[in-house]
Target: Sucrose-phosphate synthase
Amino acid sequence: MELGRDSDTGGQVKYVVELARALGTMPGVYRVDLLTRQVSAPDVDWSYAEPTEMLSPRTKETSMQELGESSGAYIIRIPFGPKDKYIPKELLWPHIPEFVDHALSHIRQMSKVLGEQIGGGQPVWPVAIHGHYADAGDSAALLSGVLNVPMLFTGHSLGRDKLEQLLKQGRQSREEINTTYKIMRRIEAEELSLDASEIVITSTRQEIEEQWRLYDGFDPVLERKLRARIKRGVSCHGRFMPRMVVIPPGMEFHHIVPHGGDMDGDVERNEENPTSPDPPIWSEIMHFFSNPRKPMILALARPDPKKNITTLVKAFGECRPLRELANLTLIMGNRDSIDEMSGTNASVLLSVLKLIDKYDLYGQVAYPKHHKQCEVPDIYRLAAKTKGVFINPAFIEPFGLTLIEAAAHGLPVVATKNGGPVDIHRVLDNGLLVDPHDQQSIADALLKLVSDKQLWARCRHNGLKNIHLFSWPEHCKTYLSRIAMCKPRQPQWQRSDVEFENPERNSPGDSLRDIQDLSLNLKLSLDGEKSEGAGNGTLDNSLDIDDSVDRKSKLENAVLKLSKGATGGVEKASLMEKADQNVVGSGFPAMRMRKYIFVIAVDCDSVSDTSKIIRTIMEAAGKENPVGFILSTSLSISEVHSLLISGSISPLDFDAFICNSGSDVYYPISSSSEEGPALPFVVDLDYQSHIEYRWGGEGLRKTLVRWATSVNEKKGQTVAEDESRSTAHCYAFKVKDFELVPPIKELRKLMRIQALRCHVVYCQNSTTLNVIPVLASRAQALRYLYIRWGMELSNVIVFAGECGDTDYEGLLGGVHKTVILKGIGNNALKLHSNRSYPLEHVLSFDSPNILQAEGCCNEDVRVSLRKLGVIKE
Ligand SMILES: O=c1ccn([C@@H]2O[C@H](COP(=O)(O)OP(=O)(O)O[C@H]3O[C@H](CO)[C@@H](O)[C@H](O)[C@H]3O)[C@@H](O)[C@H]2O)c(=O)[nH]1
Ligand SMILES: O=P(O)(O)OC[C@H]1O[C@](O)(CO)[C@@H](O)[C@@H]1O
Model:
């Protein structure tokens, strides 16, 4: 770990690595995979390019022999974004879909490997997926949706709070902040994480009460109300809230020199080897001081403006008695040259240097250029040895790992009263809290602690006495018990395979009793005791139980046939049949065998344009390649049927149909005349069970109808429910005038405020609004086809227009190739006003996977296919 190297290498890195390592050694946990980006750049360590790295356990008890072949904790580095280049977290957003696709492929591969090793040949699926920080939250939401496993989320630092703090400081406008930090994109990712997570882990209560409450999708009062309703067994009307759980992080204690009985004031010494030489970092710090024997005030933080180091230097510089009594050590990451640091970090450092000069603090302040990770404990020990004090004066500190590190080394603390330190102080009672904006109170608190020997000894003693409360094994126990309470989710087809093979194992708890793994952050198996917990937890979490599709019927792997109702819409014809093994049951064969799959996702102005483009693309594909076709559209399946008939295209020319903006997947079947008016398609019920998660059903529909009424009252008859086009997982509304309806971002906000989790899409030239499950989309349906049928995503070519429905941008990113057909697309959509951030924060325009075709005639398409190497000549 290169902690403090830049703004990406802070406490979160340490937290996540230590958590993964600790989880990997927990009884019952089989495997933990920590997924991160692979970087092979000259300016970063070579190990960042290693695809896999084992995190060896810290505890001696866990011998390698005890572990299974692939068990333990691993860092898995996934390549995505430009090769050979380090990208700061703010610029990663356009590359997230590519990460998700590669991560899926790793998880799929791993589940097979583990299946061979410990699963009796059945794939071993992750038990849960945990996103850390907004970008991983965004990814985990998509992955949990495709894999159909529970998601957990930890924010570490939250965008809305950061935005408020930056606005308060008044140095940048909202637009400037967004340009620098891509903060609106990040906030949307955090909102999506709330939509999709079953559990949100926080380090403190303050994070819930004061930070998460700033989000549309979380309201502590509504959360309590919903929880009470669940306990009483009363309906929540389709509303869902993630469960917030406070679990403070832990510490790794292996490198801490035992303090023996020396808790009451005498400085510690190395008990194991009293004659060992002083660590080199001590002299590197001491050479700054004219009187190295004075107590040392220590600050250790990334040189980030929010850490407020400049106020500390001012407080020190302006307080004569403090300067006389103590020295100040500032550990602010590592640097070779200030000119090579990032803009904000460099400006903090320059300000500090100017202040040292202004107050003439030479000989009293140390600011070493380098320190190694392994030297950090020595730095705390040095401060404790001089009877010094640790200070964290951050404007706001979400938790503050340095505070528990200092306590573990017997160093009393002065800390900001904003954020996590309040909770830490309640537990440890090892120092004083201050207002970080009040320079005088910072100086007073420091002076008090360095001058009052009894207070200093009491704080040291208290910290050492209670630090065991911040332990990773304790953290992991609570964490795992929470996961055991989640309602088990798993791909339906996998569950049915297991159950058909082994009819003894039919209760939901049983599948948890099998060894399972938990990917991205952990993989674990649950023992009998925990499985019972899982049963009880289902009650606790019954918010998510609203499983409206009858489980039994889903398990039957049935084929649902459709027939045209009197209205011309599609009705379910009550025909649940045993699986037609050739169609759905045994793995839809065609997609896996295709060399390429062309996904036609052009959102045209008119139906005739669509069928014309379908024919052009099919002709351009030629016959030489075994190409499969998928139509991806906002249309319902009966509209698709009419479109195909009007264009004289056979449904059998397609492998699949992604309909209703991604809320339904169908496969074509040959219709026989005996079946009367049945449409020649079967619906994929497994897909429905995947996207069912948090679907608000009737409660959501009623809220939408009320919303439509209120729009109509204000603007005249503008929005009306379109029952004929609505399906079980898509509520369709007709829109008369798109200028009069609110943009997507407002409608989404309105739904989130009411704890309704869904995805809203304006489509068909803005004449229609489709409201679908939050984990459904046209892009997600493609990932599902990969997981379900093994359709290779890198061999998929998506054809899209220049613009389209409001889910358009989701179609472009990822490992598949995209051909954008110039001049095509419905143009009435307010695509750009649907987001609160520019398209560049979502899409990478220079991606080699995206191509522009000059037009949409046969030759234009063929030129693009040639460029992609799909066709020769
Ligand atoms: O020059 C430095 C600066 C920091 N560190 C280490 O880096 C970590 C910094 O963690 P923390 O003080 O918690 O701050 P952040 O880097 O800002 O971490 C974020 O993530 C942490 C874990 O969730 C939270 O505790 C913080 O509040 C949150 O701001 C600590 O282990 C430090 O020892 C160094 O080794 N060298
Ligand atoms: O300033 P931001 O964007 O809120 O980010 C802070 C986050 O970045 C990191 O420094 C990266 O490790 C984390 O410690 C912290 O969670």
Summary: Residues 96-118 form the longest helix (23 residues). Residues 260-272, 496-587 have pLDDT under 50 and may be disordered. The chain has 31 helices and 27 strands.
